[in-house]
Amino acid sequence: MPAPFRRRKGRFTVSLGTGERELLAELCRQSRELLEEEDPSSDPSIARLFPAAYKDDPLGSLEFETNMGDAPRAGKLAAIDTMERTVDSSELSEEELLIWMGAVNDFRLLLGTRIDIKEESTESDYPEGDPNHDSFQVYVYLTWLQDRMLRALGEPGVPGSVGGGR
Length: 166
Description:
Elements: E1 5-8, E2 11-14, H1 18-35, H2 44-49, H3 58-68, H4 71-86, E3 91-92, H5 94-114, H6 133-153
Antiparallel strand pairs: 1-2, 2-3
């Protein structure tokens, strides 16, 4: 199986199958739906995307959130826009690939929170027949995909780029 992402002339070729692209488009749709809810604060998976700025200082975190306003959510929605626009592309710019990495990480966080993934979770925790088995398989795929993007970014390329040559 060819690498899903390869650095080539300052850009990244994308070799994903139709099913993979459809899955990513569906995850974009579902994530957008969650982020656009009226009161997403009641959803623990959304809360996972926006952790407290100051873990031990609730008032400091509230002030930070008030000052930030809707910018963090708007940034995540913009990343989804980019991914939706480029999900069928055969190549991505470095900036687009970095945006994909962020979006895929958000999908992992949402999914992992929903099915209660722990650091020590394994496939045996989600066997066939478990209602979260398929979701766990998607989580594993997204983890693999994120790793492949990171590896592609580390490939030798043009001077001055991430992983770039001299």
